[in-house]
Design brief:
Length: about 55
């Protein structure tokens, strides 16, 4: 898998994490996990930036 494909896949993951973190029902049932998803999304975003800057 090329770096571009990996970045594209990570961007999809980032989008899904963002959608889940913003989902009202999910946040109501799992408030802590909602906050953790935001943190995971930030980590994924950071990885994307690093991969894009190296290639």
């Amino acid at each position: 898998m090329s770096i571009k494909q990996q970045v594209d896949l990570l961007k999809e993951v980032e989008l899904k994490l963002d959608e889940m973190a913003k989902d009202k029902e999910f946040k109501e049932k799992f408030p802590l996990e909602g906050k953790e998803l935001k943190g995971v999304r930030l980590v994924v975003s950071s990885i994307i930036r690093r991969l894009e800057s190296t290639h």
